[in-house]
Design brief:
This protein is of the alpha/beta class. It is built from seven helices and seven strands; from the N terminus they run βαβαβαβαβαβααβ. Bound molecules: NADP nicotinamide-adenine-dinucleotide phosphate (NAP).
């Protein structure tokens, strides 16, 4: 596991957007960030899941989150621009964005990848990340220092049989992260990627339905890296893909 000691209040007063905040790793990151003092903006597809996370954070007596229901498959460039402008006017800046939401598509031999599924995976995992990042960068630049975090995978820099569209999309994610990191080197914005490693979530169960879930890391286990990259301790880190496990 990535070694980092989480310090209380280390994200105090930070405004942090998390995509895919209604389930899995994104949900855990949102609650963890809120516990460390951040005001979190919960973006996701299913409103009821976002509301459940909102309720959990309120019940803990933490800063009130904001909710942005948005389907990354259908959202337009203008949706992202409007969202970023709303964050800027409501909060004055964005200190961090965890681009975590993605879809698996289907595990299948390359010659049998369905065009529609390939396109859906690219839309959510690549196109939406590009539009999100492009729209959010100006608002991230309003912060004294800001962290933009992409989410990769073990198949994001080494292809694997049958992981088709998902693997290809994660290569693109790492490329996008590196392009942005290089352009903003020596600025207040740092851009990195996390490879979470095998983690017990709905997505992992879809990929490996028969495995023993008790042997997997939980989303809580992998939080040290998620906190490190969002905290001021990582200000000098840029353009890296780091393994959470
Ligand atoms: P998950 O449990 O499937 O959660 C994915 C989240 O993304 C959900 O909150 C989901 O919202 C949201 N999402 C999916 N499609 C969306 C859309 N069109 N618009 C908006 N939100 C959407 O996945 P996870 O395991 O936590 O994975 C989180 C990230 O880690 C992903 O990028 C994944 O590729 C990466 N990762 C995971 C593992 C692992 O072992 N779990 C390993 C390597 C990398 P709804 O629930 O509302 O659909």
């Amino acid at each position: 596991m990535f070694e980092y000691t989480i310090i209380d209040k280390s994200l105090e007063n930070k405004i942090i957007l998390i995509t895919g905040a209604g389930a899995g790793i994104g949900k855990e990151a949102a609650i963890t960030y809120a516990k460390l003092g951040a005001t979190v903006i919960l973006l996701g597809k299913t409103v009821s899941k976002l509301e459940a996370v909102y309720d959990e954070i309120i019940a803990l007596g933490l800063a009130e989150p904001a909710i942005i229901p948005l389907d990354l498959k259908g959202a337009t460039k203008q949706n992202y621009i409007d969202m970023s402008a709303t964050i800027a006017s409501q909060f004055g800046r964005l200190d961090g964005a965890l681009l975590n939401a993605s879809i698996l598509g289907e595990l299948t031999p390359f010659t049998q990848i369905h065009e529609q599924i390939f396109n859906d995976v690219m839309k959510v995992n690549v196109n939406a990340q590009y539009l999100l990042a492009q729209a959010l960068i100006p608002t991230l630049q309003l912060a004294p220092n800001a962290s933009l975090i992409f989410t990769s995978s073990g198949v994001g820099n080494q292809g694997r049989a049958y992981w088709g569209a998902y693997s290809i999309s994660k290569f693109a994610t790492e490329g996008m992260m590196q392009v942005i990191a290089d352009e903003y080197e020596n600025s207040t914005l740092r851009t990195n990627a996390i490879n979470p490693g095998a983690t017990n979530t709905g997505m992992r169960t879809s990929a490996y339905p028969a495995e023993d879930k008790d042997k997997l890391a939980t989303a809580t286990d992998i939080m040290p890296l998620y906190v490190y990259l969002m905290s001021d301790d990582s200000i000098a880190v840029n353009g890296k893909t780091i393994k959470a496990q």
